[in-house]
Amino acid sequence: MGIFDRFSSLLKSNINDLINSAEDPEKMLNQIIVDMRDQLVKAKQQVAAAIADEKRLRDQADTEIRQAQDWEQKAMLAIQQGRDDLAKQALVRHTEHVEHARQLEDTWGKHRQDTEALKNSLRDLNDKIEEAKRKKNLLLARQRRAQAQKRITETMSSLSEKSAFEAFARMEERIEQSERQIRASAEIDQEFSGDRLSADFKALESGASGANAEMQLLALKQKMGVLPAGAPAANRQLKPGEAVPNQADAEEAEVEELPDQAGNS
User: Fold this and answer.
1) Residue 237: its pLDDT value, please?
2) Model pTM score
3) Strand (E) or helix (H) holding 123
């Protein structure tokens, strides 16, 4: 199992435990971010160790190559000195270092590929943590909206219950009953207390003001030409208690008087 496979399994285990036991979503998401950052720190340490191993292999391969070159130089020197026996031994050493260098080169090449893969995985893990931080804010915003909607729904549900409306209806009935009692008390006070004679005269004055307004209306109609000038209904003084004639009665009275006026002439 690779380094990041172990980290992934550990993260999944921790997240599942948090989800199963979480009561506060914000606290749970923050804890997940903290765990992911801790794993990122450990992953960086592992990748750094892998890079160090890669560099060590590269240095070992380079050292073997230099030693192979040195033994080749020694073999050439031995040949120049006429020491073929020493030249052969030097060439054996040269061959050994060349073989070691080749093996180290192969190992270093594979390790380098693994290190690059670890670097890419580390970048992906860092990107996922940043994405998780952004998603955390979105999830918390959605959680707050859900809680607000839940509170609104619960409030509306409580208001829609029959008992709430019955309480409003009972209160309205009590207010209306109180208003009726106040009006009844006022009527009783007016009926059995105070000056009755003054009240009667106020009623007469109210009727007289209404008759006066009717006469003013007839006069205005005569002025506008709606009624002929000198209509008896507008000029005749009303007696106390006599009703004011309407416009049709006044016009009919005027028509009846016309033949009399013609005969007299």
Assistant:
1) 45
2) 0.46
3) helix 84-159
